[in-house]
Amino acid sequence: MTTRPEIPRDVTRPRCPHCQVELELGATGEVDHWSCPRPHGLAMTLSEAHGRLQNDEVAELWELALEAPQGPLPSPFGGPNMVRFVLPWDLDEAREGEPGDTENLGAVELDVDLDNRFIWFDTGELEELPTICLTRLPAPRRSWPWPGSPRSSRSPWEKLSVPATTVRSRNASTTSWRADRAPSPHLTGWGRAMTSY
Fold first, then answer.
1. How many whole angstroms separate alpha carbon 158 and alpha carbon 20?
2. At a CB cut-off of 8 Å and minimum separation 6, what does 133 contact?
3. Secondary structure class of 32 (helix, strand, coil)
């Protein structure tokens, strides 16, 4: 875990819902989070959860949070109490009840600040949930180099200024960003330079 640079004083810093100590901003890999120094747990925004949790669990988490009653923990930002609910989890990326959905393997009780889209994980709760798998990238449709391109042993993603696993693709079902898939050269919107014809 690495700690981020100093946060400007005019930014509202969230507080631990258990001890009211200011949470510290840090990161694990590409995912930013706020953690209690005591340590009671950590929190992350809904958009950051897409970088750590599976899509189906994040979608289910938000749907359950919108319907859940208020729980006993106060908001880290001083608003109304967070909602509390139990999130079931499995190892697939299919939504509950859709083709490919497998049996739930467990459940975790979570607290969410709806106004700030802030998810609180008590110590150990985040580790119970499955993570996204960065190695499950789709197989390329053609091997590199593509027909008509200069012979090269480099992949097309090496020409980008960032590694393929950190290129962010738009998730069509939400307004958050994912970092678990490299963009496909066959997507519309990338233009002729990135599209094989």
1. 46
2. 180
3. strand
Cα 97 to Cα 95: distance, rounded to the nearest angstrom: 6
pTM beyond 0.90: the answer is no
What count of residues does the chain have?
A: 197
Residue 157 structure tokens: 């993603």
Q: How confident is the model over 44-99, as pLDDT tens digits?
A: 999 999 999 999 999 999 999 999 999 999 999 999 999 999 999 999 988 888 99
The single residue listed with the structure tokens 């119970």 is: 128
Report the Cα 64 to chain-centroid distance in Å. 17
What is d(CA 182, CA 161) in angstroms, rounded to the nearest whole number? Answer: 13
User: CA separation (Å) from 49 to 81, 137, 188, 197?
Assistant: 21, 19, 26, 36
More confident residue, 137 or 31: 31
- DSSP notation for 70-110: B-SSPPTTSSSPPEEEEEEE-SS-SPTTSTT-----EEEEE
Token pair of 132, please? 């996204």
Report the largest interatomic distance among the alpha carbons of the chain, rounded to a whole angstrom: 63
Residue 105 CA to residue 57 CA, distance in Å, equals 12
56 vs 53: CA distance, rounded Å: 8
Q: Note whether 24 and 37 are within 8 A (CB).
A: yes
